[in-house]
Amino acid sequence: GRRSYFHTNMNYFAFRSLQFDHPNVENISDCSVCYEEDVRVFFLACGHKLCVACLRRLFQSALNDSSLLPLKCCELPIDMTVADSLLTTKEVSDLKERLTERTAKRRMYCPSCNVFINLDLVDDSLSTSLECHGCGIELCTKCRMVAHPFMLSCEANQATKDGGLLELSKSQGWKQCPGCHMMVELVSGCNHMTCSLCSFEFCFKCLAPWAGSSCSSGSCELWDEALLLEGGAARVRAEEVVRGTRF
């Protein structure tokens, strides 16, 4: 195949530091993605081989879109340690932070500065009070909001502060993400929701965590018949408006 001087030399110099330090590097082979021939490649767990240019682009794509993390090929994880030799120190640091955020089981985002807090590292069995490392404000790890008096429950505190919003959410059919408590709305589609802020997956109907292809509670259907009928009626009304405009 035809190779560019830049692409070939990038593979040579970037992988020169890897060939002795990493067991998954082969001196000469073909890239499974760009089909570059006779270059140093990195062997993935699934057997595919990526040259340095393609592997670097993959890591940089994950920096721009953290939903790609953790990186996989053929459903098998990609060794993230190889990024140390392909990215800058800052890029490696940012990538590790985003990977930690994506893989955390208990995520929290400060309602004041929106910084990510990994609750997997916090023992809140004795106290639910936590200081945000971003802005220093005191938070409650149970309701994941600004800390409130100990004698006041999370529910009572939220009702006191956000009574108007909660009433509005009930009237509009909005619900709060169980992961970060952000308001979400189901306009169309199935009950499987993925929060755009914290990526928590849950059932919109009962708010239970989503498990594979169904609600973990086992009591909810994937599709809401009433919502499907309402969506169909809305499309019919929209088509009638368009036809009326045309004629």
Write a concise keyword list for the protein shown above.
247 residues; alpha+beta; Herpes Virus-1; 3 domains; three-stranded antiparallel β-sheet; 33% helix; disordered N terminus; ubl conjugation pathway; RBR-type E3 ubiquitin transferase; Znf_C3HC4_RING-type; metal-binding; EC 2.3.2.31
Fold and architecture overview:
The strands form seven sheets. This protein has a three-stranded antiparallel β-sheet with strand order 1-2-3. Strands 8-9-10 form a three-stranded antiparallel β-sheet, with no helix packed on it. Strands 4-5 form a two-stranded antiparallel ribbon. It has three domains: 5-103, 2-Layer Sandwich (Herpes Virus-1), CATH 3.30.40; 105-164, no CATH class; 173-247. The longest helix is centred in the last third of the chain and has 22 residues, at 225-246. It contains five helices and 16 strands. It is globular. 33% of the residues lie in helices and 18% in strands. With 247 residues, it is of the alpha+beta class. It has helices spanning 5-16, 52-64, 89-103, 154-172, 225-246, and strands spanning 25-29, 39-43, 49-51, 72-73, 76-77, 107-109, 116-118, 129-131, 138-140, 145-146, 175-176, 183-184, 192-194, 201-203, 210-211, 214-215.
Assembly annotation: single chain
Classify the fold: give the CATH topology of the largest domain: Herpes Virus-1
Provide the gyration radius in Å: 24 Å
The count of domains is 3
Average residue-wise pLDDT: 78
Lateral arrangement of strands in the main beta sheet = 1-2-3
SSE ordering: HEEEHEEHEEEEEHEEEEEEH
- The helical percent reads 25-40%
* Overall morphology: globular
The total count of helices amounts to 5
User: Which class do the helix and strand fractions yield?
Assistant: alpha+beta
